[in-house]
């Protein structure tokens, strides 16, 4: 019987476009377009620009892969590094609930860069991306909640996700794919400590995961070997970085359960842990026609993971940090009905936002915590200034598979992100997104954003 | 009171050549020449060649830094990656006992590449290297024995060591250096799992550490921020990867205790955990004039760390794996008086070696284990074919500070390594080593191995 790692590697190596249900293909196209918007949204971000500059200075100066935010070319390794840094900073990229893992920001930068370098077809890109999603999500589920308390799963599981996607494009066989996963997993890294001082590390984590995973796959193609059981072995990732890892999760429903299709889109431009409560607050305010001034207090009933990640952020001082402040997110939602990039940028520290923010608290809730991470339930208790106590509840926050975004909503979101960052003109972005919806017909993956400027 | 991380960062930023005792400068020169031999020894190694090819394909094609084993130029980032991969494969690079950390293979590749790119002076290179050693060794001591049971400390602590060295060359101030350590620590990775199948990951760990640490320092110079307490914070390295971390070790004797000078040279070309027993066996054999045929059984009395790392290797199938086989190392020492590269390459699987190998066992020893990791005591009990039971003991294996290598021995070792690998001709290597002994007088660090070929 092959080990769980070996089964996962074989699945990733042997996956074919013909195996994918149509709904999974369509969902992957949705995820790709949604990711592209997030990548363009990284334009103009200081930490993203730092990593993009580093990649440019250390890289090829030219190359077959596109660095999206800098509108330059580079080798696939360094383009993937820059694009992965770019895709996560707006906090608008997708998330898989059960694994608490953001697949797009590590899978697509690596896969697109290599597909461009190889001239792979759009179908190959989609198939490879599904391989990356399926592997990364299962690795995240395997590593479990104990892992996520200290480690940024997108940084750690992300190395294996990127390796699987790139390995698929490089046509690794099952044994080579296992080596690639081994080399990826032994580079897996990313700690939450940076949140405490609002440091820039989240962008470094995604850059690192995409680049290290890509490197692992290229090395495997060249005969470089990795640990055969990097995930579940006695000195592997779980041994070092988890206390509740479950190897059965690595192979859960391989080929029948499509974890890719379980992935959620982000509607608010904030940490996903804030979304359920934000939607529940919106529900209460709409149902009872409340205005922000009506709010005397909001208790959010949350899972422990939300407290772990958001708890340290009490008085955010940067836009990025405020996306991890439950109070700030709910304050923006209460005022504007949506916590988007523009709302954060213009209002995250306004007097009104701060006043509302300080009325919001988090409380651990047994039902919500028990359902997490498979379901992200939103529950709030609102006390109004006239003394009413109101309850709000959503079982699937906006963007979850049962409450998903339409293609028009995804397109509109991408256009909004580009307009906000200035990473592309409205015309450019509209054309790029229009083209990208037809990716399954592309004979070769070319530049996504048109020619160099 | 600054945190331990902040004190360590300030020390690394503020270190000046004038602060260094003469003995530390001389020792650092010794370590540099010894490293250079190990870097050249990586020539011709398959896994090293894979990483060097990857760096070349993804890199600049030209650049200000020297990739030693491929005799090419590249950006400092990718040259550091290739050279760090090269420096560890022969298992001849240095080790600091107390931290179980190999500083040279992560510090010098990063520091030399950046010094070449900047045209830094030899003194700047030496000072920066000491900063890297002092930081990396203390991080290794801090992470402790629990960390080393699962993690390859050279890969993890190595990211911070490389960041400190490069940060010093880039003249980061104390705050920037703290950011660099934060960005390095959040990329720290490297798991022992690969040993179980004799995979190539050790070369990837050093490549990754040097490159990620270098990147962290460049990013900090560009304003990119990192966690302020990546080491001791509640979601930092110790929280995620150690159960016995002691923050006091991060600042132990900063500026008065020179950990750099405590570093040991390797005499045998094998895992350092085998050296104390190897030297103890040699002592017994020399004292009692034993021949290999006289040995009926050898019990090595070892610390737990030796059992953790060497225990899984029972029947090595590759030269590299055999360097982690206590039995193989002692078999070579018994036959040839020294377990060098040539002995491994030609004899690691000979019938005589295998027969002797299977007579060697490891036993946990309370005294040896209690002294470890500060002292690596070697104790063996030899049973001879004529029924005698003999005991051997060394308190400092050859290469330790109290039993060190002379400059002539270091030069000879470097020449042997070059001859073995073919990475340089005897004349080239002699000239390069002769030049390198005068590094403190160099106005600018240039290529170590002469011009491109």
Automatic annotation (TrEMBL), chains A, B:
Please report the stretch or stretches of sequence annotated as the MmgE/PrpD C-terminal domain: 268-438
Please name the Pfam families in this protein's record: MmgE_PrpD_C, MmgE_PrpD_N
Extract the InterPro entries matched here: MmgE/PrpD_sf, MmgE/PrpD_sf_1, MmgE/PrpD_sf_2, MmgE_PrpD, MmgE_PrpD_C, MmgE_PrpD_N
Question: What is the top-level taxon of the source organism?
Answer: Bacteria
Which portions of this protein are annotated as coiled-coil regions? none
Give one GO molecular function term: lyase activity
Cite the Gene3D superfamilies for this sequence.
2-methylcitrate dehydratase PrpD (3.30.1330.120)
Instruction: Pinpoint the MmgE/PrpD N-terminal domain residues.
Output: 7-247
Q: Which SUPFAM superfamilies match?
A: 2-methylcitrate dehydratase PrpD
Q: Which family does it belong to?
A: Belongs to the PrpD family.
Per its UniProt record, what PANTHER family does this chain match? 2-METHYLCITRATE DEHYDRATASE, 2-METHYLCITRATE DEHYDRATASE-RELATED
Q: What is this protein called?
A: 2-methylcitrate dehydratase PrpD
């Amino acid at each position: 019987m092959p080990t769980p790692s070996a089964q996962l590697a074989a699945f990733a190596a042997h996956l074919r476009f013909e195996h994918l249900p149509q709904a999974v293909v369509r969902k992957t196209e949705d995820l790709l377009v949604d990711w592209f918007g997030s990548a363009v949204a990284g334009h103009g971000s200081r930490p993203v620009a730092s990593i993009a500059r580093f990649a440019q200075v250390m890289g090829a100066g030219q190359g077959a892969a596109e660095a999206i935010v800098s509108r330059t070319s580079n080798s696939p390794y360094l383009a993937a590094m820059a694009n992965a840094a770019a895709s996560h900073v707006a906090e608008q990229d997708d998330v898989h609930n059960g694994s608490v893992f953001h697949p797009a920001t590590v899978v697509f930068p690596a896969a697109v860069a290599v597909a461009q370098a190889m001239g792979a077809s759009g179908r190959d890109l989609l198939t490879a991306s599904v391989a990356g999603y399926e592997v990364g999500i299962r690795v995240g589920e395997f590593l479990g909640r104990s892992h996520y308390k200290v480690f940024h799963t997108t940084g750690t599981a992300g190395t294996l996700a990127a390796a699987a996607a790139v390995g698929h494009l490089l046509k690794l066989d099952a044994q080579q794919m296992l080596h690639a996963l081994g080399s990826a997993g032994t580079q897996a890294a990313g700690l939450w400590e940076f949140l405490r001082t609002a440091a820039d590390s989240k962008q470094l984590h995604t850059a690192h995961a995409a680049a290290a995973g890509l490197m692992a796959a290229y090395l495997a193609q060249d005969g470089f070997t990795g640990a055969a059981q990097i995930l579940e072995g006695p000195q592997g990732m779980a041994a070092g970085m988890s206390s509740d890892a479950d190897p059965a999760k690595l192979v859960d429903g391989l080929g029948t359960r499509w974890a890719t299709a379980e992935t959620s889109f982000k509607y608010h431009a904030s940490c996903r842990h804030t979304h359920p409560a934000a939607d529940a607050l919106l529900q209460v305010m709409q149902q009872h026609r409340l205005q922000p001034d009506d709010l005397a207090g909001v208790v959010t009933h949350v899972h422990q993971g939300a407290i772990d990640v958001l708890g340290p952020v009490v008085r955010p001082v940067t836009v990025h940090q405020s996306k991890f402040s439950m109070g700030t997110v709910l304050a923006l939602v209460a005022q504007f009905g949506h916590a988007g990039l523009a709302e954060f940028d213009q209002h995250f520290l306004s007097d009104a936002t701060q006043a509302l923010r300080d009325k919001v608290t988090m409380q651990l809730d047994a039902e919500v915590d028990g359902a997490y991470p498979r379901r992200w339930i939103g529950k709030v208790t609102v006390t109004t200034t006239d003394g009413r106590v109101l309850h709000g509840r959503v079982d699937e926050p906006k963007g979850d598979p049962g409450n998903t975004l339409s293609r028009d909503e995804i397109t509109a979101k991408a256009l909004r992100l580009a307009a906000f960052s200035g990473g592309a003109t409205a015309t450019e972005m509209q054309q790029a997104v229009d083209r990208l919806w037809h990716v399954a017909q592309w004979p070769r993956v070319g530049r996504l954003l048109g020619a160099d400027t």
